[in-house]
UniProtKB/TrEMBL annotation:
Official protein name in the record: Superoxide dismutase
Assigned protein family: Belongs to the iron/manganese superoxide dismutase family.
Species the sequence originates in: Candidatus Woesebacteria bacterium GW2011_GWB1_39_12
A cellular component annotation (GO) from this entry: cytoplasm
Residues given in the record as Mn(2+) binding sites: H27, H82, D165, H169
Domain Manganese/iron superoxide dismutase N-terminal: 2-89
Length: 204
């Protein structure tokens, strides 16, 4: 089956005023769509690969034909990362707070929720050029990391728990060069219930 752009779990204007409607619309319907379209175009030559989901493909890049490896890395990564990203956001009034298990794990790994937030923010700010900041799980331990372009922690065997897109296309219309303002606004729309779900699944 061809890869498909997933619907957003909320309308384009749902994350206002933190993430503006126009950015969400272009980000989802143009940028994410382009990753899906390019991925499908690249896989046309190898229809047998269409039976694999995108996370399998980006985890097994070295098993793929050499001529499509970077295409899958970039566009498969883009498709996977964005599909994940939409789900870890929600309208601010539903954002909530880390609870129970998630809060305990965060405090255990980083000392406190605020120290975690600072460290994640620093990773997102420090990512030079385009990329992502992540909270991931590896061997039962939470870590903060950043990746370049559309590289996914999944490719390195780590499970994403929370992710933030810091490509300029994610914030330039509203925040221009002020990535720090985008990041601090974004904390208002994190879907903590979904993050908790990601952690429980990963710990199983
Ligand atoms: Mn993006």
């Amino acid at each position: 089956m061809e890869h498909k752009l997933p619907d957003l779990p909320y309308p384009y204007n749902a994350l206002e005023p933190y993430i503006d409607t126009r950015t969400m619309e272009i980000h989802h319907s143009k940028h994410h769509q382009a990753y899906v379209t390019n991925l499908n175009a690249g896989l046309k030559k190898y229809p047998k690969l269409l039976k694999f989901d995108v996370d399998y493909l980006i985890t097994n890049i070295l098993k793929l034909p050499t001529d499509i490896r970077s295409l899958v890395r970039n566009n498969g990564g883009g498709h996977s990362n964005h599909s994940f990203f939409w789900d870890v956001m929600t309208p601010a009034k539903k954002s909530g707070k880390p609870q129970a298990k998630l809060l305990k794990e965060i405090e255990g790994s980083f000392g406190s929720f605020n120290l975690f937030k600072d460290k994640f923010t620093a990773a997102a700010l420090g990512r030079f050029g385009s990329g992502w900041a992540w909270l991931t799980l590896e061997n039962g331990n939470l870590t903060i990391e950043d990746t370049q372009n559309q590289d996914s922690p999944i490719s390195k065997g780590r499970v994403p728990i929370l992710g933030l897109d810091v490509w300029e296309h994610a914030y330039y219309l509203k925040y221009q060069n002020k990535r720090a303002d985008y990041i601090s606004a974004w904390w208002n729309v994190v879907n903590w219930a979904e993050v908790e779900k990601n952690l429980s699944k990963a710990l199983k």
